[in-house]
C-alpha cells in the first residue's frame, strides 16, 4: 500500500493570455516511512509539485492519491479535512499564526480535529523541540530558528502520515539550519512519518532515501541515496 | 501500478467552541483596532436608543399626564352657536365647568406703545382642573379666578416682545387690564405655540365691554368640564356625539387627546429615529471599509489555517464572530451612551412638548438598539468577510498568489439584498409606511451613490490632470489619494455626508425664509388688516391714507356653511356610503369672497370664472379642494349664509398660489349675490418701516379695536424663530452623523497607519525630513477633507436647488459665504484628525520599524 501516488501530474497556468505548463506528466509513488527529496533550480516546478501532492492546489490533469484518497476530485474543504487528518507542513518562512502564542500555534491542528487534551500534547511537543519554556511567546518574540522549531512541533502535532517540508532551512543561518534539520529527521524517524522535502540544497537532499530532480517542470532524474 | 483503493474523506471534527476560542485568540493583538472600527456604530446606536427611549418615555408621560393635556375630563367647543338644547346641556354638564371665549385681536401695552396680534381668551371658572398653570406670581391665578377687578394673565412671550411686565396694563379692545401675572405654561400647551399665538387671558365677564365681540369676528367658544371620578366620560360622550356632530360641536376627551398627542409625537420620534439611522448607516459603511482592510491583513493567517485543515466556512466564522462580538460591544456601548443622551433630550425638545417628560431607562429601546447594532454590523462586515471563504492555502507557498480573490461571488449579491432588505425593513418598522421606507432607502442610496460618484470623479480628475510639474510634497500627497488601499472613497462618503447634512440644513432654512422674504419684498403688501366691518371700511381706509400708505387690495369676506350637496343633507350624505364626500367638507366654515374675475395668484383650470346665469350663481372652486371633496363642475351646492340659503352651481375650477401674501380663497362667488350679506373686509397695505407699522397699529387699536392686523415683519421673525428651534433639534440629531463621520475618518487613518508607517520609514530612509512627511500628511488630509466637503456641499446645493425649483417654486440664490466656512471647518478638522492620528508615523525612528518588519 502506497502513502502517496502521483500519476501523470500536469499543471498549466494561464498567464498573459498564454498557457504556461509548469509541470509535465510527473509520476512517482512513496511507501510509508520513505524520506524523499524533490530538488531542482528556482522556477523548476518543485514547489508546485509539493502544493499538488499536499492537496493545496488542483492539477490540470493527472491524479494524486494521498493515503489512498484521490485528491483531484475533492473540493477545497474536503482537501482541507484530508490535510488536517494526514498531512503536516513545514515552510521556508515558518507560517506561524502571528496572533497566536507558540503553544496555541501547535494546538491548532489538534483542535481542528476536535481532540481533547490538545494543550498537554502541544506542550509535550514544545518540550520535545526544546521550547517548553517559550510556549507563551508570540512568533515575533522568537528567533527564526525558534519559530521553525515551533513549526516542527506543529507539523507533528496531528501525527501525520506525510510531512511536506518546503525549503525548511531557506531562512536560517548555517548553525541553526543544522539543528533544525537534525530535529526534523529525528522526529520523523520517531514518528515513522513519510517525509517529502523540497530543497535546492543537495547536501540536505542527500539525507533522504530517494531524490527526484526536476527541471522545466519535468522529472529529469531520480535516484536512491546509498 | 494498480489504482489504489479509495478511502473515505475524513470529516472536520472541531466544534463551535473552537471557533469562539480562535476568534478570541486571533483578536488579542488587534482588539484595539477592532474596537476602533466598531466605535463607528456607537454613535448611530446611541442616537437610535436615545430617540426611541425618549419616544417611550414621552408616550409614558403622555399616558400618565393625560388629564393635564386637556386640563379637564372633557371639552366642548364651537364657532357656530348650536341649538338652544345643546347650549343648555353645555351649561349644565359635569361637576365643575369652565367657560372660555377666544378670538384673535390686536392688544397693546399703553406704557411702551407696543402692539401685537394676540389670542384673547375670556375665561371663567376653575380651569385648569388638572395640571398646574405655571404663572408668576403664583397668587395671580387666584386673583384672576376671583375676577373681582380687571386683571389679565399674559403669556411670557408677549410680555417679552412688548417690553411689559406684571404690574403694567394691557389694552384689549376698549378696556385696560392690570397684568396680574406672567403665564409660563398652560396645561397641554407646548411653549412653541405661544411664539405663534401668544395669549392674553381676561375674566370672561369683561369680554362684552371690550367691544370686540362683533359680527365677523372669528370667535371660538369652549367649555372645560370636570366629572366625578366615577363617571365614564367616554361612554357618556357616545350618547350625545351624534347630536354634537350634527350641530358642528367639537368634543375632546382625555382618551382622544392622549391618542392624538401620542400619535403626533410617535410620528416625530419615528422621523427623528430615521435621522439617527443615517448616522448608523454611515458608521456601518465605515465598518465595512475597515473590515475590508482588516481582511486584507488577515489573508496570510487564513491561508495558514486553511493549510492546517480549516474549512472556508470555519475561517469565515472565526472573523465573523470577531466582528459580531465587537458589533455587540459597540452596540452595548452605544445603548449606554444613548440612555445617557436621552436624559438631555427633554431639554432639546422642551419647546415642543405638551407634558413634562419623566426619563427612565427603556428596556425595549435598549434591546432593539443592541439588536439593530449587532445585525447591521454583521451584515456590513459580511460583505468584505465573504472573501475569506475563497482564500487559497496555496498562499502559504506563494505570497504573490492572488487568483483566489478576484472571482465573482454570488453570495455577495445575497448580502447586498439582505442589507437593502434590512434598511427598508428597519425604516418601515420605524415609520410604518412602506412608501416612506422605500423613499428613505432610495434617498439614502442616491446620497451615498452620489457621494461615491463624486468621490470617484474627483479621484479621476486628480489622476487625469495630475500636476507633474508641482513640488514633490504636493505630488506625493496627491498620489496618495489614489494609491492602492486608499481610503479616499470611504472618507469622501463619511465626511461628505456630514458636510451634506450641515449645508442642507442651512440652505433649506435659508430657502424657507427667502420664500417668505421674497413675498414681502418689492411692492407686495406686508400688512394685512382684517375683521373690518362694513361700517368701519371708510374709516380704516382714511386712517391708512392719513399715514400716507397705499391700499393695495381690499377684499370682502362672507362666512357660510354648506347646507346641501346635490340636494342631499349632511346626514343623507353620511348615510350613503357610495358617496365619498368627506365629513369635514360639510362641517367646516367657508370664508368666501365675490368677484367676476381671477386675480394674479389664480389660474383657470376648467370651466369658467365666477358668473351668473338664469338667476343662479356659478361659483369657482380651488381645483385640489374640489377633487378632495369628490365633486365636479355642474354639481349643485346650497350654502347657509348666516341663516339664508343660497343655491349655487360649481361653474369652474382654479389653481391657487397659496404662498402669495394676499387673501386667497377656496370658493369665489360671482358679484351681485353676496353684497347684502353680513360681511367683513380684509385690506392690504405696505408699511415702509417698523415705526410706521407700530403707529398704524396703535391708531387701529384706539379707533377700531376689533380690527386686527398681521405684520408680515413679525410673521417673518416668528417663522425664523420657529425654524431656528426646529433646526436646532434636527442639528442635534445630525450631530450624531457628523461625529460618526469624524470617527470613521479617525479610525480609517489609524487602520491605514501601518501601511503609512512603512512608507514613511522608506521615505525617511531615502532622506525625507520629518517636516516633509508632516507636510505630505497634512496636504493629503487637507485635500481629502476639501474633496469631501466640496462633494457634500455640491450635493446639498443640487438637492436644495431641486427643492427650490420643484417644490417651493422660487429662485435659488444660496449665500455662499457660510458654505465656504463649512468647507473650511471640515477641511481643518480632517487635517487635524489626520495628522493627530498619524503622529506615530512621524515620531517612530526608522530603524525600530525596520527591525519590527524583519
What does this molecule look like?
The complex is a heterodimer of chains A (226) and B (854). Chain A has 226 residues and is of the alpha/beta class. Chain A has one domain: Rossmann fold (3-Layer(aba) Sandwich), CATH 3.40.50. Helices cover 34% and strands 29% of the residues of chain A. Chain A has helices spanning 46-53, 76-86, 102-112, 118-128, 144-157, 174-191, 202-205; strands spanning 4-15, 18-30, 35-39, 61-66, 69-70, 87-90, 162-166, 194-199, 210-215, 218-224. In chain A, the strands form 2 sheets. Chain A has a 6-stranded mixed sheet with strand order 6-7-8-3-9-10. Chain A has a 4-stranded antiparallel sheet with strand order 2-1-4-5, covered by helices on one side. In chain A, strand 4 (61-66) and strand 5 form a beta hairpin. In chain A, helix 5 (144-157) runs parallel beside helix 6. Chain A starts with a strand and ends with a strand. With 854 residues, chain B is an alpha+beta fold. Chain B folds into 4 domains: 24-74 and 258-432, no CATH class; 96-226, no CATH class; 454-522 and 716-854, no CATH class; 527-715, no CATH class. Chain B contains 27 helices and 21 strands. In chain B, the strands form 2 sheets. In chain B, strands 2-3-8-5-7-6 form a 6-stranded mixed β-barrel. Chain B is elongated. The two termini of chain B are 48 Å apart. The chains are: A alpha/beta (226), B alpha+beta (854). At the A-B interface, helix 1, strand 5, helix 2 and helix 3 of A face helix 1, helix 9 and helix 10 of B.
Amino acid at each position: 500500500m502506497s502513502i502517496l501516488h502521483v500519476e501523470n501530474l500536469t499543471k498549466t497556468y494561464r498567464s498573459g493570455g498564454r498557457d504556461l505548463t509548469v509541470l509535465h506528466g510527473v509520476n512517482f509513488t512513496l511507501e510509508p516511512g520513505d524520506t524523499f527529496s524533490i530538488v531542482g533550480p528556482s522556477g523548476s516546478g518543485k514547489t508546485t509539485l509539493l502544493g499538488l501532492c499536499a492537496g493545496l492546489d488542483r492539477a490540470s490533469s493527472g491524479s494524486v492519491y494521498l493515503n489512498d484518497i484521490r485528491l483531484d476530485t475533492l473540493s477545497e474543504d474536503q482537501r482541507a479535512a484530508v490535510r488536517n487528518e494526514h498531512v503536516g507542513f513545514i515552510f521556508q518562512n515558518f507560517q506561524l499564526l502571528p496572533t497566536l502564542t507558540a503553544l496555541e500555534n501547535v494546538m491548532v491542528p489538534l483542535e481542528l480535529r476536535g481532540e481533547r487534551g490538545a494543550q498537554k500534547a502541544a506542550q509535550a511537543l514544545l518540550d520535545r523541540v526544546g521550547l517548553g519554556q517559550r510556549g507563551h511567546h508570540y512568533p515575533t518574540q522568537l528567533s527564526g530558528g525558534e519559530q521553525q522549531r515551533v513549526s516542527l512541533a506543529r507539523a507533528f502535532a496531528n501525527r501525520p502520515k506525510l510531512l511536506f517540508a518546503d525549503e525548511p532551512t531557506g531562512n536560517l543561518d548555517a548553525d541553526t539550519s543544522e539543528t533544525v534539520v537534525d530535529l526534523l529527521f529525528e522526529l520523523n524517524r520517531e514518528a515513522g512519518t513519510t517525509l517529502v522535502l523540497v530543497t535546492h540544497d543537495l547536501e540536505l537532499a542527500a539525507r533522504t532515501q530517494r531524490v527526484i530532480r526536476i527541471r522545466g517542470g519535468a522529472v529529469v532524474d531520480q535516484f536512491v541515496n546509498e | 501500478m494498480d489504482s489504489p483503493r479509495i478511502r473515505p474523506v475524513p470529516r472536520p471534527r472541531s466544534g463551535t467552541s473552537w471557533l469562539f476560542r480562535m476568534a478570541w485568540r486571533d483578536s488579542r493583538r488587534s482588539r484595539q483596532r477592532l474596537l476602533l472600527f466598531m466605535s463607528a456604530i456607537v454613535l448611530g446606536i446611541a442616537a437610535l436608543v436615545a430617540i426611541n427611549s425618549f419616544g417611550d418615555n414621552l408616550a409614558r408621560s403622555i399616558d400618565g399626564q393625560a388629564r393635564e393635556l386637556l386640563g379637564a375630563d372633557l371639552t366642548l367647543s364651537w364657532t357656530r352657536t348650536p341649538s338652544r338644547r345643546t347650549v343648555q346641556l353645555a351649561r349644565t354638564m359635569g361637576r365643575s365647568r369652565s367657560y372660555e371665549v377666544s378670538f384673535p385681536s390686536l392688544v397693546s401695552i399703553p406704557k411702551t406703545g407696543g402692539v401685537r396680534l394676540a389670542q384673547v381668551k375670556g375665561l371663567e371658572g376653575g380651569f385648569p382642573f388638572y395640571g398646574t398653570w405655571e404663572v408668576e406670581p403664583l397668587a395671580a391665578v387666584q386673583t384672576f379666578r376671583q375676577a373681582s377687578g380687571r386683571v389679565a394673565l399674559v403669556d411670557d412671550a408677549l410680555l417679552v416682545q412688548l417690553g411689559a411686565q406684571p404690574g403694567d396694563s394691557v389694552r384689549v379692545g376698549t378696556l385696560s387690564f392690570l397684568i396680574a401675572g406672567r403665564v409660563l405654561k398652560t396645561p397641554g400647551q407646548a411653549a412653541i405655540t405661544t411664539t405663534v399665538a401668544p395669549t392674553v387671558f381676561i375674566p370672561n365677564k369683561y369680554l362684552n365691554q371690550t367691544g370686540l365681540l362683533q359680527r365677523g369676528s372669528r370667535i371660538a367658544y369652549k367649555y372645560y368640564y370636570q366629572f366625578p371620578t366615577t363617571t365614564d366620560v367616554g361612554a357618556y360622550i357616545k350618547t350625545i356625539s351624534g347630536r354634537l356632530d350634527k350641530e358642528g360641536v367639537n368634543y375632546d376627551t382625555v382618551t382622544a387627546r392622549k391618542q392624538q398627542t401620542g400619535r403626533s409625537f410617535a410620528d416625530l420620534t419615528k422621523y427623528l429615529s430615521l435621522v439617527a439611522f443615517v448616522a448608523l448607516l454611515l458608521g456601518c459603511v465605515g465598518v465595512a471599509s475597515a473590515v475590508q482592510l482588516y481582511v486584507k491583513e488577515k489573508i496570510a493567517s487564513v491561508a495558514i489555517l486553511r493549510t492546517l485543515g480549516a474549512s472556508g466556512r470555519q475561517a469565515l466564522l472565526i472573523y465573523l464572530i470577531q466582528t459580531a462580538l465587537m458589533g455587540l460591544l459597540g452596540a452595548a456601548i452605544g445603548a449606554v451612551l444613548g440612555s445617557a443622551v436621552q436624559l438631555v433630550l427633554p431639554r432639546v425638545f422642551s419647546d415642543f412638548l405638551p407634558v413634562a417628560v419623566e426619563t427612565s431607562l427603556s428596556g425595549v429601546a435598549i434591546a432593539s438598539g443592541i439588536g439593530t447594532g449587532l445585525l447591521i454590523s454583521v451584515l456590513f462586515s459580511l460583505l468584505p468577510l465573504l472573501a475569506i471563504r475563497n482564500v487559497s492555502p496555496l498562499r502559504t507557498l506563494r505570497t504573490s498568489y492572488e487568483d483566489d480573490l478576484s472571482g465573482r461571488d454570488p453570495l455577495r449579491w445575497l448580502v447586498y439584498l439582505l442589507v437593502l432588505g434590512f434598511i427598508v425593513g428597519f425604516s418601515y418598522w420605524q415609520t410604518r409606511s412602506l412608501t416612506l421606507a422605500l423613499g428613505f432607502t432610495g434617498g439614502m442610496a442616491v446620497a451615498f451613490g452620489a457621494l461615491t460618484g463624486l468621490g470617484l470623479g474627483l479621484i479621476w480628475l486628480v489622476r487625469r490632470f495630475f500636476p507633474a510639474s508641482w513640488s514633490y510634497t504636493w505630488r506625493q500627497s496627491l498620489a496618495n489619494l489614489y494609491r492602492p488601499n486608499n481610503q479616499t472613497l470611504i472618507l469622501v462618503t463619511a465626511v461628505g455626508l456630514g458636510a451634506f447634512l450641515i449645508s442642507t440644513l442651512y440652505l433649506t432654512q435659508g430657502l424657507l425664509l427667502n420664500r417668505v422674504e421674497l413675498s414681502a419684498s418689492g411692492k407686495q403688501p406686508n400688512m394685512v388688516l382684517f375683521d373690518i366691518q362694513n361700517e368701519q371700511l371708510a374709516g380704516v381706509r382714511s386712517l391708512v391714507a392719513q399715514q400716507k400708505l397705499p391700499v393695495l387690495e381690499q377684499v370682502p369676506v362672507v362666512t357660510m356653511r354648506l347646507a346641501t350637496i346635490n340636494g342631499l343633507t349632511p346626514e343623507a350624505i353620511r348615510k350613503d356610503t357610495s358617496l365619498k364626500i368627506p365629513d369635514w367638507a360639510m362641517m367646516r366654515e367657508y370664508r368666501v369672497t365675490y368677484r367676476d374675475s381671477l386675480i394674479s395668484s389664480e389660474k383657470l383650470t376648467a370651466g369658467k370664472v365666477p358668473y351668473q346665469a338664469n338667476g343662479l350663481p356659478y361659483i369657482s372652486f380651488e381645483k385640489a379642494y374640489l377633487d378632495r371633496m369628490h365633486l365636479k363642475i355642474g354639481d349643485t351646492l346650497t350654502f347657509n349664509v348666516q341663516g339664508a340659503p343660497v343655491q349655487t352651481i360649481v361653474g369652474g375650477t382654479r389653481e391657487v398660489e397659496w404662498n402669495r401674501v394676499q387673501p386667497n380663497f377656496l370658493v369665489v362667488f360671482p358679484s351681485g349675490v353676496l353684497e347684502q350679506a353680513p360681511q367683513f373686509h380684509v385690506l392690504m397695505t405696505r408699511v415702509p418701516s417698523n415705526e410706521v407699522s407700530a403707529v398704524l397699529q396703535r391708531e387701529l387699536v384706539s379707533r377700531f379695536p376689533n380690527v386686527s392686523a398681521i405684520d408680515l415683519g413679525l410673521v417673518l421673525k416668528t417663522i425664523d424663530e420657529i425654524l431656528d428651534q426646529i433646526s436646532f433639534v434636527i442639528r442635534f440629531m445630525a450631530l450624531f452623523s457628523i461625529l460618526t463621520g469624524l470617527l470613521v475618518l479617525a479610525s480609517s487613518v489609524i487602520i491605514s497607519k501601518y501601511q503609512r508607517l512603512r512608507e514613511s520609514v522608506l521615505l525617511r530612509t531615502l532622506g525625507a525630513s520629518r517636516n516633509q512627511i508632516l507636510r505630505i500628511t497634512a496636504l493629503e488630509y487637507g485635500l481629502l477633507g476639501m474633496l469631501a466637503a466640496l462633494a457634500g456641499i455640491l450635493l446639498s446645493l443640487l438637492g436644495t436647488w431641486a427643492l427650490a425649483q420643484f417644490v417651493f417654486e422660487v429662485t435659488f440664490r444660496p449665500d455662499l459665504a457660510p458654505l465656504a466656512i463649512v468647507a473650511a471647518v471640515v477641511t481643518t478638522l480632517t487635517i487635524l484628525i489626520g495628522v493627530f492620528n498619524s503622529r506615530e508615523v512621524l515620531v517612530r525612528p526608522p530603524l525600530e520599524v525596520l527591525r519590527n518588519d524583519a
